[in-house]
TrEMBL record, chain A:
Keywords, ordered alphabetically: Cell membrane, Membrane, Transmembrane, Transmembrane helix, Transport
The protein's name in its UniProt record: Various polyols ABC transporter, permease component 1
Any one cellular-component term (Gene Ontology): plasma membrane
Family, similarity comment: Belongs to the binding-protein-dependent transport system permease family.
Automatic annotation (TrEMBL), chain B:
InterPro entries xrefs: BP-dep_ABC_trans_perm, MetI-like, MetI-like_sf
Protein name: Various polyols ABC transporter, permease component 2
SUPFAM superfamilies reported in the protein's UniProt record: MetI-like
Pfam families for the chain: BPD_transp_1
PROSITE patterns from the UniProt entry: ABC_TM1
Similarity comment: Belongs to the binding-protein-dependent transport system permease family.
TrEMBL record, chain C:
Sections of the chain in a coiled coil: none
Record SMART domains: AAA
The keyword ATP-binding is annotated on this UniProt entry: yes
Keywords: ATP-binding, Nucleotide-binding, Transport
InterPro entries documented for this protein: AAA+_ATPase (IPR003593), ABC_transporter-like_ATP-bd (IPR003439), ABC_transporter-like_CS (IPR017871), ABC_transpr_MalK-like (IPR015855), ABC_transpr_MalK/UgpC-like (IPR047641), Mo/tungstate-bd_C_term_dom (IPR008995), NA-bd_OB-fold (IPR012340), P-loop_NTPase (IPR027417)
GO terms for cellular component: ATP-binding cassette (ABC) transporter complex, substrate-binding subunit-containing; maltose transport complex
UniProt protein name: Various polyols ABC transporter, ATP-binding protein component
Domain called ABC transporter: residue spans: 4-234
Organism phylogeny: Bacteria, Pseudomonadati, Pseudomonadota, Alphaproteobacteria, Rhodobacterales
Gene source species: Rubellimicrobium mesophilum DSM 19309
Amino acid sequence: MSTQASRSAARTMLSPAVILLFVWMIVPLVLTLWFSFHRYNLLTPERYGFIWFQNYANFVTSPDFWGAIVNTLILVLGVLFITVVGGILIALLIDRPIWGQGPVRILVISPFFIMPPVAALVWKNMFFNPTNGLFAAAFHAIGLRPYDFLGQAPLASIIVIVAWQWLPFATLILLTALQSLSSEQLEAAEMDGAPPVKRFWYIVLPHLSRAITVVVLIQTIFLLGILVEILVTTNGGPGTQSTTLTFLVYKEALLNFDAGKAAAGGVVAVILANIVAIFLMRAIGKNLDA
Amino acid sequence: MARAVSTQRKAFNTVVAWGVALLIAFPIIWTVLTSFKPEPQAVATPPIWLGFDWTTKNYHDVVQQRGYFSFFLNSVIIALGSTALGLLIAIPAAWSMAFVPGRRTRDLLMWMLSTKMMPAVAVLTPLYLIFRTLGLLDSRLGLVVVLMLINLPIIVWMLYTYFKEIPGEILEAARMDGASLWNEILYVLTPMAIPGIASTLILNIILAWNEAFWTIILTVTDAAPLTKFISGFSSPQGLFYAKLSAASTMAIAPILIMGWFSQKQLVRGLTFGAVK
Amino acid sequence: MGQITLSKVAKRFGDAEVIPPLDLIIDDGEFVVFVGPSGCGKSTLLRLIAGLEDTSDGRILIDGKDATALGPAQRGLAMVFQSYALYPHMSVRSNIAFPLKMAGLDKAEQDRRVEGAAKVLNLTNYLDRRPGQLSGGQRQRVAIGRAIVREPAAFLFDEPLSNLDAALRVGMRLEISELHERLKTTMIYVTHDQVEAMTMADKIVVLNAGRIEQVGSPLELYRTPRNLFVAGFIGSPKMSFITGAEAQKAGGATVGVRPEHLRVSPSEGPWRGTVGVSEHLGSDTFFHVHDTGLAPVITVRADGEVALSHGDTVHLTPQADKIHRFDQNGLRI
C-alpha cells in the first residue's frame, strides 16, 4: 500500500518524532563529549580549558572508580539472579491451576508500580532500620541482636530493594511466555516418558530462553542507571561501599560540581550501556523479522 | 499449560501461591497499615499488626503540613502532559511505520529504541546546564518535555505493535471508499486502535508518574512531583513512619490501581513487543 | 461507464520488475478475470488499476481520461478485498454507508442506497449487526454492498472467494455472476482458480511472471491456447504433454492433449500404458496412465461406468482434431 502520496504523507508524519528524538539524543551527547575533554568545574568556571584526556584519566584512576565498577556489577548481577530465578519459580507457581489467580497476580505485580523513592524509604525505615524496623523486631523475637543492614551490608540491602522492585517485571514476562507454551508439547513429552524435572529442563526452559534473554537485557539497561534507591538509602556509603558507576558520576556532577569529570564518567557509562544495548537490539530485532 | 488436577493438589498450590504473593506484596500492605497508626504505635516493638488505634490523622497531617496537593498536582500535570504530548507525536509516526513501511523503517525503530538506552547520568551535566540556561529548572514544562522524550520510544513502539495488528487492507478499503488521510485515521484507524492507544496511555502515565531520576534532579519545589516529595522523607526527623506511610500510600495508590488494569500491556510495552 | 485502458503499464519494486510493460483494454460492462499462479503479479496489476500502488511506467485511462496520477478515491472504482476489509467497529449499515458518508451524501440518500443494496444482497435483516457477528458469506455480501452503493465505473475483486469454504464459494460465484448480469458494470476479478475464471469471465487474462500470456474468452483459451503455459493452466484436469518422437510424428516439438480428448480401450489404440490411480467422480472417471513411454503420466477422462483397475493395461486414442501442437519455444503451431 504505498503510493507516492502515502509515502510523502508518511514522511511528514514521521518527522516530528524523529527530529525530536534526534535532538534529544545528539545535543546532550555532544555536549557530554565536549565537556569530557575540558576542565570545567561549575564552582570555578573561570578555570575552563581544554585538557585532552585528563578527565578520563582522573576518573578512571580515582580510587573510587574500580570499586564503583565492581559494585555496579554486583548490583546488576545480584538483582538479575534473584529476579530471573525467582521470576521463573513464581511464574511456574502462578501458572498452575489455583483459586484466585487474578488476585495473586495483582499482589505479585504490585511492587513494580511503586515509585523508587517510596520503595527505598519503606525498606530503609520500616524493614532495615536497626531499632524500629521489622527485621530488627524479628531478630529480637528469635533472640538475636539486631543487624544494621544498610550500615553493615549496604550493597546487599540495596540489591534486595531493587530486586523486590523488579521481581514482578521478570515474573510477569516469564509468565506470559510460559502461557504461550502449548500444552500439547508438554503432553507429547509426557507421552515420551519425560518426568517433570526433565520436562522443565528440556521443554519449558528452552521455551523461556527468549523471554529470559529479554528480561536480562532490559533489566540490565535499567539497573545500570539505578540512582534514586542509593541516593535515599545509603548515599553511596558507608564510605564508598554502595557507590556504583551511576552514583559516582552523579556525585561528581551535582555534589562536586566537576562537570568535566562527570562527563568523562558519563562517556564511560555510555560505553558500558552500549555493550549491553547491542545484545538487546539483536534480540529484539530478531523479533521484528518474524 | 493448565491441566486438570486433583482438588487436593490445587488447594496445596493455592496456599503456596497465596503465601508467596502476600510475601511479595507485604511491604505495600504493611505501609498501608502503618499509615493508619498513631506515630508511637507505628514504631512499636514488637510490631502491632491490626490491633492498633486506627486513625486518619497522618493523612490530614501530610496533606496540611507538608503541602501534599501541590506535589500531587505536579505529578498529575507532568504524567498526563508528557503522555498526551507523546501520543500526539507518536500516533502519526507509528501510523507511518506500520502502514507505509519503507526500507529504513526497521532501522528507524531500532534507533528509536537505542535512544532509550542512553544512561541518564551520561547526559546529566549537559542537560542540567541546558535547563539552567533556558530557565527550565524546576519548571513543569521542562519536566513534561523531558519525560515525553524519555518515553517517546516506548509510546511509538507500543503503538506500532498495535497498529501492525490492524490489517492494511482495511485502511486501503477506506482509501478506496474515498476517505482522505485524515478521515482514514479518524474514522477507521483510531476507533480500531482504541484499546491499544488506551493501554499505551496507561502504561506511560505509570512510567511518567514513577520516573524518579530527572524529576528529583531537575526540580526544587515549584514543579516538584511526588517522587521529590517522598525523597524529602529520607532525612530522619524523629518518629515519622506513619506519616511516611501515609504519604507513600497517597503517592502510589492511583498508579497502583492503574497498574493492575494494565498488566498485559505492561509486558508488551516494556519488552518492545519482544514478548506478547 | 467503465472502460479501462492500460497502456505500457509497468511496475518495479526497487530493481525487481514485477510487471514488465503491458497493454490491455477492458471494455465497458465486461467481466474480466485476471488468472495466474500465485506471485504472477495479478493482484499487483489490480492494485495499480485501483490506485493503491503507483505505476512505475505507462498510463491508466478510465473512460478515456488519464487516471494514472489520481488517488484511489478519485478513480470512481470500488474494490472487494480478499479479507473483505470490513470496518469491525461499525455496523453493517455504517459499513455500507461509509463511502457515501465520505462522498458527503445527505443522510436520506445514504439510507435509500444502503437499503437498496441490502435488499439486493439479502442483508436487510443484518443491517444493525457488526461484521464480527456475520458468517463468511454474509461478510462477503457486505463487502460487495459497500462497493455497489458507490455506483462505481468498475468493480475490482481481489480473490474474494478464497476465504470461503467450497460449497459457499460455488454459491457466491453464481451471485457475483448474477450481479454482473443485473448491473452490467465492468468487473475485474482476480483469482488463482481457473475454474472461477472459466465459469465467470467474459474475458480471461492469463498472467505469468507479470506478463500477459493470453487474453480471450474462456472457450478461446480452452480451444486455442497460445502457448504451453496457457494450455497447462486452463482446463481441469490438466492437459497431458508429450514430447519426443511421437510428438514429432504429430507435427510439433510438444504435443498436448486434454483428458477429455482421449479415448480409452482395453485392446486398441496407438498409445499403450498401465493404469495407476483412478479418480471416480460418478459421472466421470479420471485415469492416470503410466508407462506409456510418452510422458510420465497421461490423464484420461472416461465415462463413469468404465471399469479398469490399478495395473490394467490400456490403450489410448487421441482425437486427431483436438491435438494441440507447440513448437520449440512453446508457442502454438
